[in-house]
């Protein structure tokens, strides 16, 4: 199959492809998605096949507005409606009990469905024109970092899907926050650009955070409620280690937040680790913030330097993260040593993805009280 890369003027053709059960990659504000008709079990099967994704991992269903939700769910509850009104279109996915209309092939056999309305004019128009809700996981091969540019989608899925709608690099760069609305206490299953604090404020009640996110790792007995969160994810081929000074601090909406300072003790340790790897003959990289750049560029010899963004503006870092992880692969980097960041606000999502990229490998310089 030939995969066409089209711009905005390809929306009509893409809508046609969706209506006849084909696959189209679409842009969103978070990452690119791989779309098919969510109500067509055959289209969902094609999505799993194209991604190489385990079929117990449910897909997110994308809609162009709240009015499309009622027929997809058992009941649109008031709290769920409040969140949709406050954050849609935007980077928030809600899990609700599904209606009969949504086939089990789309939801990985679950009785719930994850719904999201993305903030991207091309994709909203695509959904409206095609008249179908879009089942859409991230448009990467399973296990690879999510795609933040059309080029990444092409690399992973060329020959497997009909069209990629290119709308340039995404604005946020990490996937939507997922909140489970089927529990008595709404529970965050995946951190994103909409924070637990913001969700609590709109709901007027506290939001729980899935313990698997806080643990950061698949600790014994802790199983994430979003099936996708259990897989190896977001990771480059290289072995990555996060160097941190850390203390667990109370933060609103989160029982415990990882608080990582950028300071010279961290940078020194990063250099030490990276130099040891470079000396051992491994192709090594240091991943740091702009704020740390001058420190490293002054004394770096063997390892290559990659800048993630500004520590003071986490959005500049989430936007670049998956692209940089892909660069590591392209450039044959085998070892990466990365700085760590405060996990408040958008930093919560950043540290969640960075932690996964590191396979939770951490090097703690010193604990703060
Ligand atoms: O930002 C995003 O959400 C992107 C763009 C394309 O919209 N999509 C995305 O999809 O990240 P995907 O398939 O890569 O991740 C979906 C996550 C998985 O972890 C999956 O297990 C979880 O959502 N999920 C989907 N349906 C669920 C459900 N009914 N209950 C619990 N978790 C669900
Ligand atoms: Mg994904």
Description:
The protein is of the alpha/beta class and 369 residues long. The chain has eleven helices and 17 strands. The strands form two sheets. An eleven-stranded mixed sheet has the order 1-8-2-3-7-4-6-5-9-10-11, with helices on both faces. Strands 12, 13, 14, 15, 16 and 17 form a six-stranded mixed sheet that branches. Helix 10 packs parallel to helix 11. The radius of gyration is 20 Å and the shape is globular.
Ligand kinds: threonylcarbamoyladenylate, magnesium ion
How much helical structure, as a percent, in the residues?
25-40%
Give the overall shape, derived from the CA principal axes: globular
Number of helices: 11
The helix/strand series, from N terminus to C terminus, equals EHEEHEHEEHEHEEEHEHEEHEHEHEHE
Quick summary:
The chain is an alpha/beta fold and 369 residues long.
Topology:
Elements (H helix, E strand, L loop, with lengths): L3 E3 L4 H9 L4 E3 L6 E5 L3 H11 L8 E3 L15 H10 L4 E6 L14 E5 L4 H10 L3 E2 L14 H8 L5 E3 L11 E4 L6 E4 L5 H8 L4 E2 L1 H5 L23 E13 L2 E7 L3 H16 L4 E6 H10 L4 E6 L4 H17 L4 E4 L8 H11 L4 E6 L2
Parallel strand pairs: 1-8, 2-8, 4-6, 5-9, 10-11, 12-16, 12-17, 14-15, 14-16
Antiparallel strand pairs: 2-3, 3-7, 4-7, 5-6, 9-10, 12-13
Helix pairs in contact: 1-4, 10-11
The site of magnesium ion (MG) has 3 residues, from loops.
């Amino acid at each position: 199959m030939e995969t066409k890369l089209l711009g905005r003027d390809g929306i009509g053709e893409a809508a046609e492809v969706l209506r006849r059960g084909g696959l189209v990659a679409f842009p969103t504000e978070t990452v690119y998605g791989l779309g098919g008709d969510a109500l067509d079990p055959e289209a969902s099967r094609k999505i799993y096949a194209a991604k190489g994704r385990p079929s117990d991992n449910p897909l997110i269903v994308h809609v162009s507005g709240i009015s499309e939700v009622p027929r997809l769910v058992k009941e649109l509850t008031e709290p769920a409606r409040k969140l949709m009104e406050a954050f849609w279109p935007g980077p928030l996915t809600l899990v609700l009990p599904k209606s009969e209309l949504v086939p089990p092939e789309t939801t990985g056999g679950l009785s719930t469905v994850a719904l999201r309305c993305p903030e991207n004019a091309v994709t909203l128009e695509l959904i409206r024109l095609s008249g179908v809700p879009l089942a859409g996981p991230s448009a990467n091969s399973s296990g690879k970092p999510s795609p933040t540019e059309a080029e990444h989608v092409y690399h992973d899925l060329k020959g497997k899907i009909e069209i990629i709608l290119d709308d340039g690099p995404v604005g946020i760069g990490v996937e939507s926050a997922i909140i489970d609305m089927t529990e008595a206490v709404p529970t965050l299953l995946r951190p994103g650009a909409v924070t637990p604090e913001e969700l609590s404020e709109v709901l007027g009640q506290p939001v729980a955070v899935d313990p698997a996110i806080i643990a950061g790792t698949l600790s014994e007995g802790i199983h994430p409620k979003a099936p996708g969160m259990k897989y190896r994810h977001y990771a480059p081929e290289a072995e990555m280690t996060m160097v941190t000074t850390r203390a667990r601090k109370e933060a609103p909406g989160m029982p415990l937040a990882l608080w990582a300072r950028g300071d010279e003790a961290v940078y020194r340790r990063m250099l030490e680790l990276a130099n040891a790897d470079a000396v051992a003959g491994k192709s090594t990289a240091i991943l740091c913030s702009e704020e740390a750049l001058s420190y490293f560029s002054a004394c770096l010899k063997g390892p290559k330097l990659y800048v993630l963004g500004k520590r003071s503006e986490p959005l500049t870092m989430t936007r670049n993260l998956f692209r940089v992880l892909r660069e590591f692969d392209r450039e044959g980097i085998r070892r990466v040593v990365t700085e760590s960041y405060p996990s408040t606000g958008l930093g919560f999502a950043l540290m969640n993805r960075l932690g996964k990229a590191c396979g939770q490998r951490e090097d703690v310089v010193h604990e703060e009280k």
